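Allow me, if you will, to draw on your knowledge of protein folds for a short while. I have a record of one protein: its chain in single-letter code and its fold written as discrete structure tokens. I should value your view on which stretches of the chain appear to form regular backbone elements. Thank you for your consideration; the sequence and its tokens are set out here:
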Amino acid sequence: MNSKLIRITGEAAIAIIVSVALSFVPLQIMGHAIDLAILPLLFLAFRQGLLPGLLSGLIFGLVNGLIVGAGNLDWLRLGLDSILAYTLIGVAGIFARNTVRTAFNRRKSSTVLNVTTGTLLASLLSWVTHVLASSLTANTFLSQQQADIMSTLSNTWLTWCLTAGLAILIFVLLAYLLPTALIPKQTRFLTRREQSHLLND
């Protein structure tokens, strides 16, 4: 195992551990629970890319599902509401290359655009999966499922807005105040010359 892979694996492990810890932190805004666990997963995806982001989300989703569903395990709900929903957070990794390069080149507005778009896309996909999981596991009749989906949408859209909004705020502040935090050592998104320049700054 080379040093770069070891670093990515170590960073992914830290992100998963922090996400597990944050999943136990109760934060509510206007009575809506905020999912802080997505923050380390998004951070990892923006730094390391799509595959590390997806795999980390998958592992966290499995761990989270086993913790939440301990003693009352619903495999369909586990698969959708936890494993798939958190795996999709890794989709933010699509924007990793542009995020790292714009952060390196100090193009703050472009970095903000990347982290904002990535956060919105990943959190939206995850939220839709949560909604489907809540609806599809509630009733087996199609008409009732459709009603449940609409009810869940109306009850949880503000939760998604607040969670995504908080995540965007954090990453925007990071892009402006500490953009180098978005650039991992020996990243494949920068050339050796650029990395050497980064180390000399």
In short: The chain has eight helices and two strands. Confidence is low (pLDDT under 50) at residues 140-145. Strands lie at 28-29, 32-33. The longest strand covers residues 28-29.
